[in-house]
Amino acid sequence: MRQIDHFIQGGSGGLGSGRTHKVWNPSTGEVQAEVALGDAALLARAVENAKKVQPEWAMTNPQRRARVMFRFKQLLEDNMQELAELLSSEHGKVIDDAKGDVQRGLEVIEFACGIPHAQKGEFTGGAGPGIDVYSMRQPLGIGAGITPFNFPAMIPMWMFGMAIAAGNAFILKPSERDPSVPVRLAELFLEAGAPEGLLQVVHGDKEMVDAILDHPDIAAVSFVGSSDIAQYIYARGAANGKRVQAFGGAKNHGVVMPDADLDQVVNDLAGAAFGSAGERCMALPVVVPVGEDTAERLREKLIPAIHALRVGVSTDPETHYGPVVTPEHKARIESWIDTAEKEGAEVVIDGRGFSLQGHENGFFVGPTLLDRVTPDMESYKEEIFGPVLQIVRATEFEHALRLPSEHQYGNGVAIFTRNGHAAREFAARVNVGMVGVNVPIPVPVSYHSFGGWKRSGFGDIDQYGMEGLRFWTKSKKITQRWPDGGGDGSNAFVIPTMG
Ligand code: NAD
Q1: Are residues 375 and 348 in the same domain?
Q2: What gap in Å lies between CA 283 and CA 276, rounded to an integer?
């Protein structure tokens, strides 16, 4: 059995506490590897390594730091196919989606290549007589990231790309369900010229997460995962005096106005609701047609489009989406469909019990369409995180605006319309962090930033872009005065007082 080890100080970390976790191949249903689960002692070793290397890295001029980022970006491109195959084999997403996962992380690395410009600081000459004021952004020291299974390349790079470029050392605790790609990223980062110990990977579960949250030398923690755990991370990290950002689950709505181009909407929904088996925090699992006529026309077009979706193994280029990540997750999704049915939703297309010929042990869930879903249903309130699309019928625009605004999650939302006024009104008033106008998955590009609202995000600072730089640095403000010593070397001056 293949063993996946920690990546400590540029190499294998030893198997820690001896506990391990199974890593599946979701397409075949076989256990393909075991990952080591670390403990507080292993984390302490990683922190000591990071402490040795971080001060010098912080003093390295930003152009040199950027050069490591440039080389890393090149290595990501050179190794794209290998990374995508490895990612797909543990996660189950198809190869093109796996490449997209690496590519979206790579784009954050591209942004981080601009660190000399981004971290320049501000300066006011002559803020008072002979007085200059300047501010600079200094790294925090050691940062940590705790990441989910669904984007094992992109989300780690959202975090360590910005943290390390800004002068921090970084310890990554990836998901134990698909841990190989994060280790491969750390190996490539070393190959790009980063000093050993700057980027380390420690595997683990709650035990390792708690060790990170409690370690006094870790200054900041970034988390992405489900909401209850995000809230726990936020509270425990903050209680220990750390800076914390913690992003949680989602239930993104797509509002379809009567004037929308329904063929385009159906095409967008096929990708946004079912792509990557719905295991995306920016998936669109709820569609809200406005008016009964829109609902009927949309449903009529959706049914054949969903039947045409091809579910298959993740390496098959004809596959629209692959298996879900674990047998437990498959069971959970199917149980949500049971719940929805019991709650009175109409199961229009039923993906339960789906079996792929030749891969009967794979963790496949067929595409599912539920109609007449209402806001009081548990299956609407909670995140399903599978290939399940729910139709919630709205009577008019204000009703459609209220649904995502009042939902516990506030990650993403989309409106489909040809009416600029309706779109503008919706974007301005909806109580959700990221909005798409005729864009089903509005993930902001790397030079903006990413973050949801309500139970989708705890903390005030977003991921990546300038917000990422802000999160991983603290600002220092310097007020300086250099009085003329008058040539006698006395340099006598009076420190100014407030007022
Ligand atoms: P998860 O919450 O189960 O795991 C996330 C991380 O937390 C993993 O590293 C895991 O090891 C750790 N963890 C698990 N249980 C823990 C516990 N009890 N205590 C401490 N740490 C624990 O999430 P997941 O299933 O890997 O990922 C899917 C979830 O992530 C979905 O809810 C999805 O919406 C969310 N997500 C959110 C975003 C976003 O940006 N808002 C992005 C991607 C995924």
Answers
A1: yes
A2: 9
Q: Report how many domains make up the chain.
A: 2
Do residues 18 and 157 both lie within one domain? yes
For residue 311, the enclosing domain spans 253-437
Domain at 344, CATH number: 3.40.309.10
State whether 100 and 239 are in the same domain.
yes
User: Is residue 446 one of the residues assigned to a domain?
Assistant: no
User: 411 in ligand 1 pocket by Cβ < 6 Å?
Assistant: yes
- Model's pTM, two decimal places? 0.96
Q: Whose C-alpha lies nearest to ligand 1, atom 23? A: 225
User: Is there a contact between 203 and 35 (Cβ–Cβ < 8 Å)?
Assistant: yes
Q: Which amino acid is at 438?
A: N
Ligand 1 geometric centre to CA of 227 (Å): 8
Q: According to DSSP H, which parts of 286-326 are helical? A: 292-307
Place of tokens 């959700």: 432
Exposure class string for 115-144: b at 16+ Cβ within 10 A, else e: beebbeeeeeeeeeeeeeeeeebebbbbbb
Residue 118's domain is classified under what CATH number? Answer: 3.40.605.10
**Catalytic one among 270, 281, 284, 356?**
281
How far apart are alpha carbons 493 and 145 in whole angstroms? 47
pLDDT, tens digit only, all 499 positions of the chain? 899 999 998 777 665 668 999 999 999 999 999 999 999 999 999 999 999 999 999 999 999 999 999 999 999 999 999 999 999 999 999 999 999 999 999 999 999 999 999 999 999 999 999 999 999 999 999 999 999 999 999 999 999 999 999 999 999 999 999 999 999 999 999 999 999 999 999 999 999 999 999 999 999 999 999 999 999 999 999 999 999 999 999 999 999 999 999 999 999 999 999 999 999 999 999 999 999 999 999 999 999 999 999 999 999 999 999 999 999 999 999 999 999 999 999 999 999 999 999 999 999 999 999 999 999 999 999 999 999 999 999 999 999 999 999 999 999 999 999 999 999 999 999 999 999 999 999 999 999 999 999 999 999 999 999 999 999 999 999 999 998 876 665 555 566 676 5
Is 281 an active-site residue?
yes
159 located within any domain: yes
Question: Atom 26 (ligand 1): residue with closest C-alpha?
Answer: 148
449 lines ligand 1 (CB under 6 A): no
Please report whether residue 79 resides in a domain. yes
383 lines ligand 1 (CB under 6 A): yes
Chain centroid, CA 9 distance in Å? 25
